Amino acid sequence: MILDVSGLTKRFKNQFWAKPHYAVKDVSFRVKEGSITGFLGANGSGKTTSIKNILGLIYPDAGEITYFGGKPLSNEVKKRIGFLPERPYFYEYLTGTEFLQFYADLSGLKRGPNLRKRIQTLLEKVELPHAADRPLRKYSKGMLQRIGIAQALIHDPDFVILDEPMTGLDPDGRRTVAEIIKDCRKRGATIFFSSHLLHDVETLCDELVILVKGEVKYSGSTQDLLKRAQAGYRLVSIKDSSPQSERVVDQHHLQKRMRDLLDSQAQIIEVIAERPSLEELFIEMSRKGSQEQVEKASN
Amino acid sequence: MRPLIAICTNTFREIIRDRILYSLIIFCLLLIGFSVAVGQLSFAEQLRISTNFGLAGIQFSACALAVFVGSSLVFREIEKQTVLTLLSRAIGRATFLVGKFLGLISVVAVVVLGLSLVFLLIFLLLGGKIHENLFYALWGIFLEASILLAMTLLFGMFTKPILAVSFSIAFFLIGHWLDSLEFFASQSPSGLFATFGKSAVKLLPNLERLNWRDHVIYLDHIGLDQVLWGTVYASSWSILFLSLAAIVFARKDFV
Predict the structure, then answer these.
(1) What pTM was computed for the model?
(2) How far apart are CA B116 and CA B135, in angstroms?
(3) Is A55 close to B88, i.e. CB distance below 8 A?
(4) How far is CA B152 from CA A68, B74, B159, B170, B172, in A?
(5) Is the Cβ of A95 closer than 8 Å to some Cβ of chain B?
(6) Contact yes or no for A90/A99 (Cβ under 8 A)
(7) Contacts of residue A3 in chain B, CB cutoff 8 Å?
(8) pLDDT, tens only, B126-140
(9) How far is the C-alpha of A64 from the C-alpha of A62, rounded, in Å?
(10) What is the ipTM of this complex?
């Protein structure tokens, strides 16, 4: 396992005298080597808090986090991790090249022709070679996001953590980021990224961790989740020259409804097997999570 | 070592590209220029007045740079969240803090050096003679700024920049009046005030120990041991403040 999070709990106080509230509670999940794992959750569900805990930027109240097969966080471990924070803000007085050079220095990379080539390659990968000598203050939001991804990849990390890498990007920018993520996996890296853009997550991720109100509601493969979800059928028929379309929840109901339609002289045109999208599943989980919380509070 | 140098260099570059630095330099240059004008008003003490003003201007610039820029040095990184990408790298939090300190103190050194050259030129034009005391005085100013910077970084760990600046200015003033405070405390009938005075002398850096500016005027002898002792004294306080800041910083959550 690249990452093993077990029982992670973090509480915050809004004010000194206020009662602390749970940002994340008993969060446990694993990230498999070589996977693209999506970290899903609504705003305020605890995704960024979990990521900051993983990177040692905040300290958990309880729980254990290990990396690369059981190692605790250390400088050696951090050398193998690349990170892009949510809404990245960088030193605006640096140019694109200076900025990547700075992060290369921080990662202990040796200066020289190889590094210059690496910086050039990364700038091309994030489609910013034209802005290499421009100060970051003149970059658009999408450009900042892309140069941020480049800094996360400068030291060729084994494990890449991206916090909301697609937020605020136009479709073209999202496509570029998706290509970069796929490319990272192709060269053997493991990617863990948080998002609430469910379509992108569904197409990119083979593993999912779903967080609702600070608690893990699902952790496992994307396909398993979609298969596990209750499938339905769309039944299209014509009766008295007027077309009808209806949804039935399972095979038993489908057969019964088909018999009824045939008995009533209707003509069955089409039966389509339907699976709920990740978006529908996610909304369902979030709704259930909120209900549970309301029930807990009222008890 | 490379990450430390990278943070130090980047901090240096950040401040060099900041407008506040140039405001301070212009202010100091105006003060040095003003010192020449004020000196003209005096019949016999022109050099003395100009020297006083010039050294005071350099001291003000160095200390103001340390306090005003130092107060937001780490705060700005946390506020703008640049600290997240830095500390997610293989960099210790203490290394980050020391890198920031070294970056700003390097700027202070360059500013003191640059302003000193301007000051020396005027000093020589007014008929002053170069004496080692002049260099000791400038070194003292730099040491004082280093203590103030480390102290401001420590205050910046607890509070917002405006309060960190206020605390540092208060400690700067107390640091220069500690000898007087000790004297008044020893003369005071109040036991509480006497204890307070004695404690303050022991617990706070005495910045007057690094003030060798009067010696430039009167050419009193300053022993090298006095300068070395001052250097050790200032370095110890700086290291102490930086270590305390590092302890607080190590426990911080970057929410």
Answers:
(1) 0.85
(2) 9
(3) yes
(4) 40, 10, 10, 11, 10
(5) no
(6) yes
(7) none
(8) 888 888 888 999 999
(9) 7
(10) 0.81
